[in-house]
């Protein structure tokens, strides 16, 4: 079979298949993205989110890029927030050279063991207690993603746990070669962000996830 005929056959085969437009609206597990059995009350999560944003605004110095963060944990006794409380070390390949480069400072994730006192009494106190009962978590943050927006393609030093609070079907998470939606239904998701990954919000509403680092699994 010549090359033209091979291409025609390939395209004809694809055209004969009905595209899957349903499973993309739900969670599909894959390498680097799994759903845990741990679940939270989505109504309580959203009430707590409203309580927190009434006290503090999303920051992080990346608002112009559609990314915002609120620190939910801190180093014990710390009263002044630093840049690494909201962001930290990651690696990316920024240009056509495909050479990996580092950005920002290394964060001692394990040092962030204390819930920010202002958020005591909210449902996030229960979430923090539930996570620390099960895992050696580091920074716990609320991360927002603006509508029709995408993060950089990068990797982090450690995996993360995600608890989606507000989302939409166009909000997707990609880790390595696997892409899926993470529904905001109270589920907790493991994301191996040591892989190259990105979060994108292709929908018309803001996406907010509670994200906790897993420092014991970090690599340099």
- The CATH topology: Jelly Rolls
Flag low-confidence runs. Answer: none
Beta-strand fraction estimate? 25-35%
Q: Which word captures the global form?
A: globular
Average pLDDT, rounded to a whole number, is 94
**Cα-atom radius of gyration:** 19 Å
Major pleated sheet: 6 strands, antiparallel
Pattern of helices and strands? HEHEEHEEEHEEEEEEEEE
Q: How many distinct folded domains?
A: 1
CATH fourth-tier homologous superfamily: B-lactam Antibiotic, Isopenicillin N Synthase, Chain
Which second-level CATH architecture applies?
Sandwich
What is the strand arrangement across the widest sheet?
A: 1-13-10-15-7-2
Distance between the termini: 50 Å
How many H/I helices?
4
Q: State the name of the first-level CATH class.
A: Mainly Beta
Q: How many strand elements?
A: 15
Return the structural class: alpha+beta
């Amino acid at each position: 079979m010549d090359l033209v005929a091979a291409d025609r056959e390939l395209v004809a085969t694809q055209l004969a298949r009905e595209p899957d437009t349903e499973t993309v609206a739900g969670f599909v597990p894959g390498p680097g993205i799994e759903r845990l059995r741990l679940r939270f009350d989505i109504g309580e999560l959203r009430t707590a989110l409203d309580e927190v944003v009434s006290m503090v605004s999303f920051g992080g110095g990346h608002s112009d890029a559609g990314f915002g963060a609120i620190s939910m944990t801190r180093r014990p006794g710390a009263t002044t927030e630093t840049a690494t409380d909201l962001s930290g070390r990651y690696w990316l390949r920024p240009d056509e050279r495909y050479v990996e480069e580092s950005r920002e400072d290394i964060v001692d994730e394990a040092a962030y063991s204390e819930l920010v006192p202002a958020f005591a009494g909210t449902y996030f106190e229960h979430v923090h207690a539930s996570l620390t009962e099960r895992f050696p978590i580091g920074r716990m943050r609320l991360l927002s993603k603006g509508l029709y927006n995408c993060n950089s393609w990068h990797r982090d030093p450690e995996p993360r746990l995600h608890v989606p609070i507000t989302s939409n079907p166009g909000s997707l998470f990609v880790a390595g070669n696997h892409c899926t939606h993470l529904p905001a239904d109270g589920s907790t998701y493991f994301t191996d962000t040591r892989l190259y990954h990105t979060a994108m919000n292709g929908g018309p509403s803001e996406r907010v996830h509670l994200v906790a680092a897993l420092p014991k699994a970090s690599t340099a």
